[in-house]
Amino acid sequence: MSSFNNSYDTLESIIFEGGLRIIGLHFHKDLDLMLIVLNNKKVLTRNISSIKKLKNATPEQLSNYNLISNGVGVHWPDVDEDLSLKGFLKEEISSVTVPMAS
């Protein structure tokens, strides 16, 4: 008898087994800031300018987004951009700096 082997990595487990989702986005173009609001009451931040297709988008284009797969990703139809929660989480983890021991 074979058993199912879950091949999710850690982030995918948090998303697909733990149910983490994006529930909304807020943009502050003048501050070059995008806030990604999650269902666990946490907020991730990104610089709008760090995302090539969003960098030159108008505020109206930024606000015209659709959550994909119940919040696992985001699609901006006006600029043809798709971003994933997994990608946002990967960036969040890579931006955390660990202080060096002196």
Features:
alpha+beta; 3-stranded antiparallel sheet
Major pleated sheet: 3 strands, antiparallel
Shape: globular
Strand coverage percent: 25-35%
- Secondary structure class reads alpha+beta
Rounded to the nearest angstrom, the radius of gyration is: 16 Å
Name the CATH architecture: 2-Layer Sandwich
Describe the structure.
It contains four helices and six strands. It is an alpha+beta fold. It has one domain: Uncharacterised protein PF10387, DUF2442 (NE0471 N-terminal domain-like, 2-Layer Sandwich), CATH 3.30.2020. The termini are far apart. The model has no long low-confidence stretch (mean pLDDT 90).
Summarize, please.
It is built from four helices and six strands; from the N terminus they run αβββααβββα.
Strand-helix topology:
Elements: H1 10-17, E1 22-28, E2 33-38, E3 43-46, H2 52-55, H3 59-63, E4 66-68, E5 73-76, E6 81-84, H4 85-95
Antiparallel strand pairs: 1-2, 2-3, 4-5, 5-6
